[in-house]
Design a protein that fits this description.
TerB-like, 15 helices, Helix Hairpins, 0% strand
């Protein structure tokens, strides 16, 4: 992470070591500012106040990213101005608590291999790191493989083959990547969020994005025919990437190959029940119901509950997202 990203942007996550290093630097700059404010020269005093004012945003940005590492909203940084309590919280929780293991709704840990930029090419020399954006791809693999039930060995084999043949990762790096794949199954970030972030990294490589769609289709077919939930995910990634996949459309609509059965009336009623809807519904009703439920089960709203209840809430939000995705496709929301 560059200095500019660290000090001036709130997106992303940082670990405890980076937080403490930043705090040491900010403390030194703050001490200089306080010293200048106390100087008898009015010009130096004004400059000291400017230094202290400019320092406020980098402190907030660093604390926000550290909150993200703990899977907390940056709004928690509003505690900072509170006397004693704010400083104790900052030095205590932000300085000593472990961050979320693996991805969370704010992204990946900053020390995850492969955060630096690498071109999306194949046939690289044996490497121990995932190229930029590929952790999001691993998360997409995991969520697609999991969406129709337990992940099968055949699906893991497809991912491992991609890591070995396309990325040319050595066995230790592949094992680490597969561990990320397993951890990403429970990421709170949605499949759509990972897909959009991966697209931003590789938007200029349309042919490459088409290959990724074909790879996702291969993964979906690894355990048999395309399932309806897999189709929802694949339709979504095709729309986000803005590419056409003949392999996907041939599997979905062609005369030969797997076909996808339509959603039954009872299943549609179940999706409506999950969103709290009944009878004929409008687009606005669907959106309103979805926003209300997401707000109710948002991690910030259940963070004070025990681990078991948070797990239940996490499962519930997944059902809500799946139901909304079905209606989003049906009504072109």
């Amino acid at each position: 992470m560059s200095f500019t990203e660290l000090a001036f942007f709130t997106e992303g996550r940082i670990n405890r070591v980076t937080f403490w290093k930043s705090w040491v630097v900010f403390s030194l700059i703050g001490w200089i500012g306080v010293t200048l404010v106390a100087a008898p020269d009015d010009g130096l005093a004004v400059f000291g106040w400017v230094v202290l004012a400019v320092l406020a945003w980098p402190i907030f940005a660093v604390c926000a990213k550290r909150c993200h590492d703990l899977d907390k909203s940056a709004w928690w940084c509003l505690l900072l101005p509170l006397p004693v309590l704010g400083q104790l919280w900052m030095l205590g929780e932000l300085g000593f608590f472990h961050g979320t293991s693996g991805p969370n709704r704010f992204g990946y840990p900053m020390d995850l291999p492969g955060r630096r930029s690498h071109p999306p090419v194949t046939g690289n020399p044996r490497s121990r790191h995932l190229p930029a954006g590929y952790p999001d791809l691993m998360a997409m693999f995991a969520k697609l493989a999991k969406c129709d039930g337990p992940i099968a060995r055949a699906e893991i084999a497809v991912v491992d083959s991609f890591l070995a043949e396309n990325l040319s990762l050595d066995p230790p790096a592949r094992r680490e990547a597969i561990q990320q794949f397993r951890a990403a199954r429970d990421s709170r970030m949605s499949f759509e969020g990972h897909a959009r972030r991966f697209y931003k990294q590789h938007a200029e490589h349309q042919h490459f994005l088409g290959e990724i769609v074909d790879l996702l289709v291969t993964l979906a077919l690894a355990d048999g025919n395309l399932k309806r939930r897999e189709v929802l995910f694949l339709d979504l990634v095709v729309a986000i990437f803005g590419v056409s996949s003949h392999k996907y459309y041939r599997c979905k609509y062609g005369d030969s190959g797997p076909r996808v059965e339509s959603v039954s009336q009872s299943e549609e009623k179940e999706y409506a029940r999950i969103l709290g809807l009944a009878g004929r519904v409008s687009r606005d009703e669907i959106r309103k119901a979805y926003r209300g439920l997401v707000g109710q089960y948002h991690p910030d709203k259940v963070s004070h509950l025990g681990p078991r209840l948070r797990e239940v809430a996490d499962q519930e939000i997944k059902k809500i997202n799946e139901a909304y995705e079905y209606f989003r496709k049906k009504y072109d929301l």
